[in-house]
Every structure is written in C-alpha cells, then in structure tokens.
Amino acid sequence: MKSDDIRVAIDIGTTKICTMIARIKDKNTYEVINITTMDCDGMNKGLVVDEQLVSECLTKSFENISKEVGININKAFLGVSGAHLESKNHSTNISRPSGMTSITQDDIDEALKIASKIDLNNDRKLLHAIPRSYTLDGLHGIVNPLGMHTAELHVETHIISGSLSSISNIQNCLKKSKVKVAGIVAEPLASAEAVLSPTEKDEGCVVVDIGGGTTDIAVFDNGNIIHSKVLPIGGNLFTSDISIALDLDFNTSENLKINYGNIGPDQNNATDEIKIKPRKMDEEIQITRRELGQILKERAAELIRMISISLDEPDLVDANIGKFIFTGGGSKLNGFMNVAKYILQNNVRLAEPRGLSGITNTQKDPTLSTVAGIMLWGIKNKEVSSHANLFNENINQQERENSSALSKFMKKIRS
User: Which residues are within 8 A (CB) of 305 and not within 5 positions of it... i.e. 6 or more apart?
Assistant: First the structure.
C-alpha cells in the first residue's frame, strides 16, 4: 500500500463516530481497508455541545484505526448534519457575448463559478452549489450544454448551506485531534451518494437516513437533487420511549430495541415474554414482545409522518417520487419498512452502501451508508493528495530531518 493512495472519511454522529480508511486502486476503483465504529459523547442532534468530549472521542477513533492499519492520519473528509443545514434551488443568468455562440467548457466552468457566488447571511457557510440543469434561450432541462448554441444561458443549481458556527465547532474538534479537514459534505448528499442507483435518481426518489439524533432527507428527480433537509429527530427516540415507558436505563432500553424490537404485522412470537427490571422496582417483571412493539410502533409511525410532512414543499409539487429509500441504523428496526410502506403509500427499500470494494458482508450495513457516502463524495470531488503517512515513512522522514539538522550543525562548527 502506498501512502499517496490513502483517503480517510469521518462521520461524527450523535451516538457514534465512524471512521473509514480507503485506498485508491485506480481512477474508478476504491477499496476499503478498514472501518471502525465507536461511541461518541458531546454531540446532540448532529451538533457539537462539548468540543472537548468530541475531540477526545475523535482522537481515540483515529488512534485505534491508525494502529490497525499502520498509518498516521493527518487529513479527513468530514460529513456535517443537523437542522442548521438549509437548501434552496437557485437560477442564475450568465452573461453571454451578443449573438448566437457555441458553449465551451470554459463557459460551463464560469457559469458554475458565478452560480456559487450567492448572497448568504454572515452566519451562513456555502457547502454545495450543485448544477441541476441549464436553460438555453428558454429551452429548459438541458443536462449538458457543451457545444450547443445559444444567446442566453441560465444555470439551475441546488444550494446547500450551514450555520457557520456549527460547522466551525465540528472543524475545531478535528483540529484538536490534529487532523485537518480535506473537504466537507452535507450528510443528506453523502447518504444518497452511497445508496442510490442512477436509475433511481432518474425515476425520482427520496433518500431517508435515520441516524441516532437526526434524520437526513434528500429528494432526486430526473437525475438531480432537488431538495434536502435534516430533521432533528432520530432512532434515539425509540430508545427513549422504551426507557420512559418501562422505567429502564438507556443502555438496557437500547438492547431491548435491538434484540426484541419488532413493529411488523408478522410477529409469530408476539406473545413471547421478556424479563425486565424497572429501576423503581425490586423484582423483575415480564412484558410481551407485542407490548414492546406497540411502544416502538407509535414512535415509528410519528417519525414517518414527519418525514412525509417535511416533503410538503413548493419545489416538490411537480416532483415524481417513485420510491423511498431508507438507510441508517434507525431504519433497521424490524417491521419498519412495512409501516413506512403503509403510511407513505409508496414503494420502499432498505439500502446498504454500494460503490466501494473491500467492504465485508458484515460491514454492508445501513449504519455505514453515511461514512461510505462521505468517502465516495470526497474521492470524486476533492483534492487527490494522501490523507495519511505510513508509520515507516514517518520514521524515515524523521531520520532525514535529524540527519539534515546534524549536517547543518557540523557545517556550522567547521566554519
């Protein structure tokens, strides 16, 4: 493995930190060589609430994966989420020479540069200006205008921005861990990058990534993103409901959800009993799987309805939505897809990350879609220099620096 082939992606979630190391095999092939997931403290609903705690968790994550792979990480692609992310579709008129002229690649590059220079409040940071289509002399929906002739040119872009302070806070956490940010991607965009096929983008779909503290949403139609949003709710609500309803601590409630939670209609073992010990009781009691499932089902239905309501936007009135693609840990709840299909009255699919080789069968999990998407987006859109050095390269570099310093010192003595 060459050090100039290494890329690092980091997903700092409300409940976990996921770090991925990949190697660039060739221009279109990327191989995952390691993934680590560990608990995260100091985050709430995608926002940093304690920089010190988050940076300590990041440092531990980087140290663990560095030892396993044999590298020193110095840069990483970073995903950001949270309700502070906002999106809008924007149309920009591009000045053209008088008369009918052919569009060159320079024209397209200049158009995208101009479209990116939009007015934002001082507390906002532009993350993405994604070209959706072009309009040539009133003809809409042109995907690639290269070589076409026109007197007037407009570019339609999807703009995603975030709170400057929120983004700075999460960047500071990496800085404290001595890792630079190689690129930032909005996580709704990253999740879509990892799970969607070109056909799904063309036909129209909604990607819903249910994490621990947030739900990321991205809508595609005619091959382009047309809407993105983050809801400040996630799978932690399932666990909190169990904790409150049954008077259990959070970890016990989480284990109940994972091991016994089922909200589907086909519960053959619905009457099976589960022993629990509420905090305010001296003895264990028993509940059935059906009773546990009812607690979870009510929250799941509420979450799905909130997702549906969030799509009541002017930009989506004419959108063709043929499918909902769910991913993220919250969507893995048994029976969730059944409830989603019933409430949304649409096709649904539970998605795993795709597009990266080297991911084992056990790692092909919806919980890894975001970090996989961050990696894919970074490789395709950002700089090509390595994010890490091999340990032996660091040693050799230190030896060269020491040798150089000694040589300079000896020359000074002789002079």
Answer: 343
Alpha helices per DSSP H over 83-134: 105-115
Contacts of 266 (CB under 8 A, 6+ apart): 335
Question: 3-class DSSP state for residue 54?
Answer: helix
- Give the contacts of 121 (CB within 8 A, at least 6 positions apart): none
DSSP state of 248: -
CA angle, corner 87, sides to 211 and 355, nearest 5? 50
Q: Are 187 and 128 in contact, with CB atoms under 8 Å apart?
A: no
What values do phi and psi take at 15, rounded to 5? -110, -20
Of the candidates 328, 411, 399, 390, the one whose C-alpha atom is nearest the C-alpha of residue 46 is 328
The tally of CA atoms less than 13 A away on the side-chain side of residue 56 is 9
Q: Please tell me the pTM assigned to this model.
A: 0.88
pLDDT digits (tens, 9 = 90+) for 9-60: 999 999 999 999 998 877 667 889 999 999 999 999 999 999 999 999 999 9
Three-class SS of residue 42?
A: coil
CA dist 372 and 200 (Å) reads 18
Nearest to 182 by CA among 60, 86, 73, 71: 73
On the question of pLDDT at 265 being above 80, the answer is no
**CA separation for the pair 120, 231 (Å, rounded):** 22
Report the alpha-carbon distance of residue 114 to residue 279 in Å, rounded: 60
DSSP conformation letters of 191-203: HHHHH--HHHHHH
Structure tokens that stand for 183 in this block: 């690129």
Q: Pairing relation of β-strands 180-186 and 75-80? A: parallel
Radius of gyration of the chain (CA): 25
Please give the angle made by the CA atoms of 268, 273 and 278, to the nearest 5 degrees: 140
Strand partners, 16: 39
The pLDDT value recorded for residue 393 is 52
Of the candidates 47, 325, 75, the one whose C-alpha atom is nearest the C-alpha of residue 178 is 75
Q: Which two tokens stand for residue 187?
A: 């996580």
| DSSP for residue 37 | E
